[in-house]
Amino acid sequence: MPKAARELSALEVKRLQHSGKGKNVTFAVGGVSGLLLQITPSGGRTWLLRVVVGNRRREIGLGGYPEVTLAVARDRAREIKDQIRRGIDPVEERKAAKAALVAAQRRGLSFADAVERYLAAKLDAFKNPKHRQQWRNTLETYAMPELGEMLVQDITVQDVLRVLEPLWQAKTETASRLRGRIEAVLSWSTVSGHRTGDNPARWAGNLKELLPTPSKVAKGDNHPALQIDDAPRWFAAIRAKQGIGSRALEFAALTAARSQEVRGACWDEIDLDAAMWVIPAERMKMDREHRVPLTAEAVSLLKALPRFSGNALVFPAPRGGRMSDMTLSAAMKRLHEAETKKDLPGYIDRVSKRPAVPHGLRSTFRDWVAERTHFPGDMAEMALAHRLANAVEASYRRGDMVEKRRTMMQAWADYLTGTGAGSNVISIGARG
């Protein structure tokens, strides 16, 4: 029977040295028979366990020193010897586990990668570049945070519900489109051999049993809006909050712009000296350039924002990309919840009684124009970048009334901040 090596202490192991000549040398450290510290001429140190498995002599690596300490190396050596006593070859088991992992990785496909492959395969089906971008943006904004890193084979109904439920009441149309797009990507993944079984995003006989039918959701297109009288109180609350999401929401309120227009705003679109924000046609819902006159409050907000080298976005996400729509929604939701915790009614829509959402700020602005001012309705529609309902008038109108709109937007800012003429019911004859 071979003589057992003396059990070295951690300090003694640390002091072991290579002579600097010849090949690698090994030192028995004791505690577990066959446990060695191997040292290279250049000073590299690794743990080895010399054992006999069946009729074969093995040298099994246990990791590098000092990352793997003496105590850990002894524990690993004992575990391996226990495996051998149970008839397991640790080396062969390790090879099998590695092969299984490689095979699983080859078979596995993340949802994010599946989206890219699906869009590449279906590129010809999307003849309109804007449609392609909308398809991608919807998935990136709402689905990727929850599903992006998941393998398509692991996505379940509960995972899809986690994406859809926060949107289903407030943004029913968007959520319904999102569901269909997730279903299409997962269907492609199944046909391509990356997943099996039922499609968890399927509507009939599946999500239909768990979510209300879109047509039954109360006025899904009408986003819950702030009540006019609540707007100044809400605006003061959002101004008191820190964070880029709060500033984006404040800017959205001052400009009556859509969430995606604010989140995609770039510094080269804004002329602070002229107090003008020009949104290019490709970023607008109506595919037309939209000029937004900036109020004094909006300009001050922009001047106070930090600018980040190499990032053109006015309101970037913390990691540098485009801010998620959920960031604005969350900021709005926190304001409402802070009020309800004080036993106050919060910020709710007058009709639906649901908490107001960012897109509803546009409705609040439109209601304020109609009910509290004498500004023309078509001027408000232009501010909202809507298509004029009167086709005859629209065909003759060449300008965008931008300077008259500047007066209207400043009155709106005055109302929100409780200063100037706009803080009261106003009567401004801005026609002509």
From TrEMBL:
Gene3D superfamilies: 1.10.150.130, Integrase, DNA-binding domain, Intergrase catalytic core. The lineage of its organism: Bacteria, Pseudomonadati, Pseudomonadota, Alphaproteobacteria, Rhodobacterales. Residues 221-409 form the Tyr recombinase domain. GO terms for molecular function: DNA binding. It comes from Paracoccus aerius. Residues 109-190 form the Core-binding (CB) domain. It comes from the Bacteria. Pfam families: Arm-DNA-bind_3, Phage_int_M, Phage_integrase. SUPFAM superfamilies: DNA breaking-rejoining enzymes (SSF56349). Belongs to the 'phage' integrase family. This is Integrase arm-type DNA-binding domain-containing protein. Keywords: DNA integration, DNA recombination, DNA-binding.
